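Q: Could you write out the predicted structure for this multi-component system? I'm mainly interested in how the pieces pack against one another.
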Amino acid sequence: MQLETSSWTEVEDGAPTTALLPVGSTEQHGPHAPVGTDTIIARSIAADADRESSLDAVVLPSLPVGVAPYHGRFPGTLSVSPETLRRYVRDVVESLSETSIETVVFVNGHGGNGDTLAQLARELTESPSLDLEAYRWEWMRAVDDHVGHAGELETAVLLHLCPDDVGEPVAGDAMSWDDTVDGGTIHQFTDEFSENGAVGDATGATAEQGKRVFETVVDALVSFLERVDSSTGESDE
Amino acid sequence: MQLETSSWTEVEDGAPTTALLPVGSTEQHGPHAPVGTDTIIARSIAADADRESSLDAVVLPSLPVGVAPYHGRFPGTLSVSPETLRRYVRDVVESLSETSIETVVFVNGHGGNGDTLAQLARELTESPSLDLEAYRWEWMRAVDDHVGHAGELETAVLLHLCPDDVGEPVAGDAMSWDDTVDGGTIHQFTDEFSENGAVGDATGATAEQGKRVFETVVDALVSFLERVDSSTGESDE
Amino acid sequence: MQLETSSWTEVEDGAPTTALLPVGSTEQHGPHAPVGTDTIIARSIAADADRESSLDAVVLPSLPVGVAPYHGRFPGTLSVSPETLRRYVRDVVESLSETSIETVVFVNGHGGNGDTLAQLARELTESPSLDLEAYRWEWMRAVDDHVGHAGELETAVLLHLCPDDVGEPVAGDAMSWDDTVDGGTIHQFTDEFSENGAVGDATGATAEQGKRVFETVVDALVSFLERVDSSTGESDE
Amino acid sequence: MQLETSSWTEVEDGAPTTALLPVGSTEQHGPHAPVGTDTIIARSIAADADRESSLDAVVLPSLPVGVAPYHGRFPGTLSVSPETLRRYVRDVVESLSETSIETVVFVNGHGGNGDTLAQLARELTESPSLDLEAYRWEWMRAVDDHVGHAGELETAVLLHLCPDDVGEPVAGDAMSWDDTVDGGTIHQFTDEFSENGAVGDATGATAEQGKRVFETVVDALVSFLERVDSSTGESDE
Amino acid sequence: MQLETSSWTEVEDGAPTTALLPVGSTEQHGPHAPVGTDTIIARSIAADADRESSLDAVVLPSLPVGVAPYHGRFPGTLSVSPETLRRYVRDVVESLSETSIETVVFVNGHGGNGDTLAQLARELTESPSLDLEAYRWEWMRAVDDHVGHAGELETAVLLHLCPDDVGEPVAGDAMSWDDTVDGGTIHQFTDEFSENGAVGDATGATAEQGKRVFETVVDALVSFLERVDSSTGESDE
Amino acid sequence: MQLETSSWTEVEDGAPTTALLPVGSTEQHGPHAPVGTDTIIARSIAADADRESSLDAVVLPSLPVGVAPYHGRFPGTLSVSPETLRRYVRDVVESLSETSIETVVFVNGHGGNGDTLAQLARELTESPSLDLEAYRWEWMRAVDDHVGHAGELETAVLLHLCPDDVGEPVAGDAMSWDDTVDGGTIHQFTDEFSENGAVGDATGATAEQGKRVFETVVDALVSFLERVDSSTGESDE
C-alpha cells in the first residue's frame, strides 16, 4: 500500500503493521546518473518489497534530501545536517505512534544517512513513549559487491529502473572512495579525488545486471521485514 | 527542469536561476481524496509552471510531510513540527547558496505550512550569509473561491490530475473550518467538527472544473515567478 | 486576580483554575499609535475579562515581545522567532503544571503570534506529561469587521484605553494588507506597501466606538472562558 | 522614554543610543510580598534612571518571567530555563541591531537571571554581526548590604513603590540562603529551608528606608549608564 | 573505584550507588599555574574522596572543558557554552539511569560552571524519567577563605598536587575579581582588570598549606557524600 | 606540548599551529579491558605523536565520553548523543579561532564517534567564520587488520600501554560485529550478539604485539599531521 495515494479510510481498513520509509538523497552521481539516484532506488525497492511481501505494510512518501555535504561542490546537490534529518524522520515516526503500525523500517538509499538513521532507529526503539520498533536497512548492505558511487552496480540498477534518466555511463575519476591516508581523512569533498564525481567504472553496466541486483535486494528486504515483524516474531519465538 | 532526474552536468549546463520547492503534506483528506493530496497538487503545479515559464528554472524534489497535527487523529496523517520543517527547508535552501540560483519559491500545497514558510522566506531573504531571495507561494491563495479541505475545488483538481486515486466524492461533515467561537479556538483537532475529515461539499466536483482551476493557478505561479525573478526585476525597474 | 501583585499565599488561597496569559508585541503601529499597542490591548482585555468572569481565574504577566519581523525596518520594533516564543510560553505554562490551574488561555493581541500559539496550545493540550489544557484566543477574531493595523478599530480601542498615548490618528498608506499577488507573497516587509506603517484609515476613530468594541471582545472572552472551563464543561455536557 | 507608549516616529525622532531592558521574575516572595516583586523593582529602577539620566535612553518593556525553578514548589511561581531566557533576550537585542541603539543594559531584578544575562551580555558584545554592546546590571549588586529574599531591604523598596501590594511584613523562616553544607548544595528548593519562602526579617522595613535604598540604586544605575555610554566613552578616553 | 580503568564486570560487581563527576575547565591561570588547574584539582579531590569514603562510589572521567569565555583572550583557554555543558553532562548522567547509581555529585573545580551545574542538578533530581538524584559540589565553597584565581590557596593546592607543573608563583595584577562598578559588570573579560590573568597574590603559597587545604576540602566532600547518600539518608531520617 | 599542564604564557611562547584533540569513549570493552580503553589509547597516541612530530603542536585534554548507546546495557557505559558531541567539540574548536592554531586533528579512539567527527571536521573547515581547518583521524583506520572490540589488537595495545588495567584476556562471544542480516540491522545493542561484550579473540594478545601496533599508528598520525600542516602545504604546492 502506497500511503500517498491512499485515503485515510483505506489506511484504516488496511490497518498496516509495518511502515517502510524510503530515505534518499539529492546529490551528484557522476555525469551520467541523475542526482535523485538514491531516492529513486530506495523508493523503488520499498514499493516492490511491499508488493512482494505478505505482511500488511505501507510505504510512506520518500524523503528526498539526506546528509550529503561532501558532494556539495557539484551543482544539483542538496543536503541537510544529521540533526535536521534526525528531527524530520523522528517527527514522521512519532506521527505513527498510537496507530496500527508496530514496526518502521528505514529503506535507506544513501550511505551518508546511515549513521544518523541507525542512531535514530535505536533511540526510537528504546523510547518508552513510543509503542513501535524502528530499524535501519540499506540496499548497499544487502549486496555482496562494492557498490561505489554511480559505479557499475548502481548504474545497472538505474538502467533497469529508469533508463531514460541515465546518460552514457562513464568510468569514475576514482575507482574507490579515495579519501583516507594514514588513518586520517585527507579529502573531505568528493571533487578532491574524483573530478567527474563518479567512483567506480560504470561503462559495462547493463539493465539485465541491474534487474538481477534489484531483485536480490528486494528479496533481502522482504526477508528482513518478515524477520523483524512483531507479530511473526511473537508467534515464532 | 526536474532536479531529481537530471545529472549534475545537466544542472551545470542549465544554470537555472530560479528554484521551485514544492512543499506538501501527508494528511487525511476525507474518505475520497488521497492523504498525499497537498503534495500531489504542489508537485504538479510546480512541474507545469516550470514547463510554461520562460525562466531558467529547476523543480526541486517535493517535501512530502508538513505541519498537520490537527489531522493527527485520522490514520495516515504524518506531521512534523514547525521548527523541524523550518530546519529542513532552511538546510535545503542553504545548499543552493553559491550556485546559479538567485530566487527560491516555496510552492506550498498545505495551509498549515504557510506561516512557517513565510517566516523562513523572510529570514532567508534577509540573511547576510545567503546570496538569494526566497518567497512563499500558495495555490489556495491564487484562487478567489474558498478551497475547503477535500472540498469541491481541491477534489476537482485531483480529478484532473490523478482520477484513479480519487474515490467517490462526498460532502464533508463540515461546510467550513468550524473551530473558532467567540474569538477562541474551541476545536483543536479536525475530527471535533468533521467526522469524515472533509470540509466542503465535493459531490459536484468535475475534472473539467479541476482543469480550469489548475490552469489558473499554474498561470498565477508563472506570473509570480516572472515578477520576482531577479534578472527580470533588474532590467525592468 | 492579577498574578504580579499577589503573594503566593493569596494564590494558594484563591486556587485559580483558569490562567490567562496576555501575549502582545512591540512593533510599529503607524505614526499615531504606540508600539506597545498589542500588549496594551491584550493586557486590558484579560484584566477586564477576569473581573467580569465568575470563574476562579488569574491573569499572568503579559509577554511584551512577539513574532513581528515584518515590521522590523521601523524603529521601535522588537521581535522574537516563532521557536523562541514557543519555548518561552511553553516554559511558562509548564510552571503551572501540578498547580490548581486546569485551563490556560493565550489572550493574543498580535496576529503574528497566532500560528505559534495555536500550535503550542495543541501541543500542550495533548502532552501526556501536562495536566492542563491550553487554548488560543485572539481579540481580532472576536470582531466581525476587519481590524487592520493601527486602523480605525484598533485606534478606537486605544482611544478608549489610553488616550494620552495616542497621537493624531492618520490614514494608513495602505488600506489593506497588500502583500500578496498571484498567490505569492510579494512584499515581505510592511514598509514595502505602507510607508507610514498603518493599514486602514484611523481618522474617524472615536473613544466611544472603542469602548463598544472593547466591551464586545471582553464579553466574547468571558464567554469563551466559560465554554472551555473544565469543571463547567464536565457538569454541563 | 518608555518604548511601550511611544510611536515609531517618536522613537525615530528620539534616536536613543542606550536601551534599558528590565528583566524580572514571577516567583514567591514570602507571604507578604507580591510574586512580581523582581519585575516591579527592575521596571521602576529603569524608569527612574531613564528620567534622571541625561543620556538618550529608551526603556524596553519588562520581561516578566526569569529563571526561578527553586521557588517552583510555591504557588504563583513561573520559570523559564536559562537557555529559553537567553534565546528570548538575545532575539530582543538582535532586533535593536542596525538601529540608533549602541548600548544595551540588562536591568536585572532577580539573582537567578544573573549568570545567564552575564554570559549573554558577553556573547552579544563580542558578536561580529551585532553593532552594539550589552551589559549586565543588578540592583542587589549596587547595595552594600545583604538583600535576602522578601527581606528587610526588598520589602522596604516595595513599601516605597507599591505599598498597596505589600501585606504585613514577616520574618522569613530562614535568615540566610541556607542551602550549602560542606561545599555542596544540600537544598535545591527554597521550601526545604524556609517554609514561608522568605529569607531575612522584613518586620522592621519602612517606606522611608525603601526610598533611600531605591534612590541609591537608581543613582548607581545612572552612574553606570554614563560609564558605559559609547559616545561618552569615546570623547572621554 | 575509577571508572576509566575498570572493566564492566568490575563495575557490575562493585555496584556503586554514588557517582562523582569531576567537572573542570581549561583556562588561563596566570603565568605560573597550568591551564588545566581546575580539572586537576577537581579530579584529585574526587579520587581522594572516593578512597576515603566508606560509600560504594565510582569516579567518572573528568570533563576537561567548562564555561570560561571571560578568559578567552588568553592563549590556551577553551570554553563551551552553558547550554553545551548542560547537554553533555545531562547525557552522561542519563547514561547512569537504570544502573546501580542512585546519587550523582558534580565535583566542580571552576566557578563559571557553577550556575549551569546547579540548574542541571535540580532538573535531573526532579525529572520523573530519571531514578537518581544529582547534586552540585564546589571545592571553593568548602573553603572559608577567598580562593581568587591562581591566587595563594589555589596555587598552594597545586604545589601539593603537581609541583612540577607550577611555575614561579606571582602576584596577580588584580587582588580581587574587579569587574563590577555601581552594580554593573564593567569588565567582561579578565584581561581588562588583570593583565597577567591572576587574581590574588600567590607568592607566599606553599605545598604544606596546599596539603592542609586539600585535606580539608576532601573531608568536606566525604561528609557531603554521606549526607546525600540515599540509603544512608533513608535509614537515618 | 600538553595543554593541561602548560601555563598560558607557555602556550603563547610555543605558539603551536596544530592542535590534537583526543576523543575517546567510556564503554564496556569485554570482561578484561577497561571501559576507558578508547580514551586511554587515543590520549596515548596523541601524546606520542606530539613528541615525535617536528611540528609545533599541542595536545588538548581528552574528551572522555562519546557516542556509544549500543553498549548501554552493560554497566559502566556512558554515552552522549551525536548532536551533543558535535556541540561540545565545536565549542572547543571555536575557542581556538583567532589563536596560533591553524589545523585541528581529532584523534579518535572510538568508531561510534567517527561519523559525527567527520561531519564536524567538514563543517569547521568550510565555516567562513573560522580561520582553521579540522580533520578526522582514527587509529583503527591506520591499521590494516580488523580491530574488533576488546579483541586481539586492541587488547595488545592496552597490554603495552597499561598492563595493570587489563584483566585476563578472553575470547569474545562474537568473532565479528554480527548485527546485520539481509542488509538490515537486526541487533541494535551489543549484548544481543555478544554476551560478554567482546568481539574477537584476545587470548593471544601480547604487549610486544601491542607495542608494534602502537608505534605503527603513532607513525601514521605523525605522517598525517605533516601532510595536513598548513605551512607545509603552502610551501609544497
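A: Regarding packing and overall arrangement: Chain C touches chain B through 43 residues (CB under 8 Å).
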